[in-house]
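Session log. Operator J.P. requested a structure for one protein chain; no other inputs attached. Running the standard single-chain path with token output.
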Amino acid sequence: MIVPEVDGEDNVSLDAIAARITACRLCPRLVRHRETVAARPPRRYQGQTYWARPLPGFGDPRARVLVMGLAPAAHGGNRTGRMFTGDRSGDWLFRALHAAGFASQPTSAHRDDGLTLTDAYITAAARCAPPANKPTPAEQARCQPYLLGEMRSLTRLRVVVALGKIGWDAYLRARRATAAAVPRPLPRFGHGVEARMPDGITLLGCFHPSQQNTFTGRLTRPMLHAVFARARRLARAPR
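Structure written below.
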């Protein structure tokens, strides 16, 4: 069993963190779920080989913008092996990232499709697809060391875009875990809300591009594109 102690180690590369993430089996409920959905895919995905492992973050190691998601989708990232890839949430996200100049293409179909990110890195609060898209607090806590390791490696961060309240809260918890200062009172999540951290990083809230939000119109494409346009401006602004 791999124990995720990467947050307490110096000079751990993103590649080394990714290797530890993909080998992780610390959460029996999540291991069972990710492997069960892979063994019993819906008809449209029958015959495909699922990744069915935890997902590391991916993107530019020199990123100034970190995108914080919730967790892989059972038939999205859990199938394709890359965050926000192969599902409708990813369709929305990568179109917005491409429009803002962060992604080389507006689509993300599978992990070998040639997509690259520039100045952005995508991660999540939980690395395995959870039942009902709801990781438990204990499962998030087991994943947190991986996030801390990624944050330590991403030394140029200026902006964190939190996709949903879980991503927002996960970033604030991660800061507290490393004794990094946070505003008091803690800023509350909201779409378009900006919270300036004492070290100059801006936490930027965005509704998650889930079908629950996009189908109902709670999140529109212009709203999502505006968030990443703002992230681009903040990343480029003088300190």
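Operator note: The first strand starts at residue 58 and ends at 59.
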